[in-house]
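Chapter summary example.
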Amino acid sequence: MFRMCELFGMDEPLSIKSLRSSMGLTLDQFGERIGLSSKGQVSIIERENRCGLRVALAIEALSDGRINAGTLCDEVRLARAVHDGINAAAQHAPSPVTSAENVGEAA
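The structure predicted for these 107 residues follows.
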């Protein structure tokens, strides 16, 4: 059975544990880098692949964007979805009236 990553020729998503291992960091050291004081907290995040906003953004930054904070935290995912929706709407909106004669015509 093919996994989706294999089917589409994509690399498997980077896990938090594989990021930490590739950096040669212990649970404690990784925790310090992302603002956590307990290796137990890091271990839970590695297992559950979920965390709070601040930690999710720290992990994304530490991974140079290879781990998307939106996959770790619903608030990030939702905020980015809203942001993307606003940007998409702005791209399709009519351009604003800029010249004085167009202002008179619009009125």
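To summarize the output: The mean pLDDT is 82.
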